[in-house]
Task: structure prediction
Amino acid sequence: MNSEVYQHQVQELNKKLRHHFSHLLRIEFDHFHITDMQYNVLSAIDEHDGITIGELAKMLQQDAGNMSNLLKKLERLAYVIRTRSAIDERVINLHLSKDGRHCVKTINAKIQTYYEKEWNRYNDKDKEIILHGLTKLNQFFESFLDKEEHDGE
Result:
């Protein structure tokens, strides 16, 4: 099979996976009045408390303007708090509020419940095959990033 066919299959699979993930959690996202991208922002802040807007934008591969708009909405929902750095007042650090932590914790618990329920349907051999395939797919995409970073230097 040529690379164009593989590329098309990978793109279609990626689209389906993103759609399934978003659809699976739609009720939770709607309950908290957020989108899947806003959940990604909240989750990243939860994992990296005190992260700056620039660091967050780079991590999630978003431009700073788009990230700023996402954060404004999350602030209006009282999920995110901005604080000035004690070291450099020009730097803004991001934190989750109590409601923001509750949102992430609730959605993560739902994801965990889905995984546990479905994962237990597979035998050990199938689990190994799935993990191996996902690991290889991740390595495939990481190789693009490595080349892009080296080409940009």
Observations:
- The domain at 3-121 is CATH 1.10.10.10 (Arc Repressor Mutant, subunit A).
- The longest helix spans residues 124-151.
- The chain has one domain: 3-121.
